[in-house]
Write the structure tokens for this entry.
Amino acid sequence: MKDLLILGAGTAGTMMANKLIRHLNKKEWKITIVDKDENHYYQPGFLFVPFGIYQPHEIVKKKSEFIPAGAHFILDEVKNILGEENKVELKSGKVLTYDILIIATGVEPVPEETEGLKGDLWYKDIFDFYSFEGAVKLSEKLRTWEGGKLVIQLNESIIKCPVAPLEFTFLADSFFQERGMRDKVNITYVTPLSGAFTKPKATAMLNGLLEEKQVSVVPDFYVQHVDNERKVLVSYDEREVPFDLLVTVPVNKGDRMIAASELGDDDGLNFVPTDKHTLQSKKFANMFVIGDATNVPASKAGSVAHFEADILLENILHYIKGEPLRAQFDGHSNCFIETGHGKAALIDFNYTTEPLPGKFPIPVVGPMELLKVNRLNHYGKLMFRWVYWHMLLTGIKLPVPTHMSMAGKVTA
């Protein structure tokens, strides 16, 4: 009996367990999945909780509900990966061996990385919404906040769901308008990027939306520290942005045990160096990486993990047969962007092609429109929660091509 071990039972790890259980011979392979948290959070829902669009109980379920029958689920924390020995040490002291290892440990917000961020004002006037606790605490704050300087701020550019801070900004504008107090709120968007996004056409659209919604943008701002006494963000070049309410996106880092296992990249963010096409670890042939844990130059988003899972399944089956890893991930990513007032945009892109206008997923027909703000895209975003729980996590093939298609896109 051979062992396939998956570290992490989040989106990527759970999808892989469900896909692999259908393709591996149960008499030859044992699948084990390890995670330290028993709860599975629908992370796209964190965005909606502060505004009361989703209630906290609607975005959390038990991870055990989604582990396929026949796979073994261990609730424990990974302490160390011994790649040379094909072993994984758990915090409980147990040691697991493997023939194939899949790292799907994701990323986590680390507010401690920024001086003063997690200080006296944490969860009083400074909040994140990239964690379940932060989203819930922020919802409580917004229910009673009477207005002032609202600052939405990114500490780094490499984060989970890169458009989520913009979505929060747009939803905040809508939220305060609907409460009749938008004139009492000054919204500022602070980013280390030179624009709203990293791709030119999408940036132009998003910058236009920020201007339309009268949101001030402070670009190229790298936070050095947060002054809790004066309620000011201070950059490395000594610029300052004052706030009354700060909604921050902390530094996002991979699991700390990646560094302990000496598997991380050189920048200290604990992402695992990964072949961007095959998803094989660059250090060990029998180690594969998927989702937010990788250092591939794609968005850290659920859609990316979904498309990667299709590729990784093929390549693991190739690896088992001793064949070349023929499946190639192209960096495909797509995501809905909430723009407020019951509308949203949609973007679809990959390593080499930026978001373009057009129809999606079916050329000419759509029904979704790319780089367009409309109500149908918003309904698509809301519908995705059902798709996530009932199809994506369970490994059911979705009617969206794994590789990005140029069909239906307008290049001129």
Notes: The longest helix spans residues 302-320. The chain has three domains: 2-109+253-320, 111-251, 333-392.
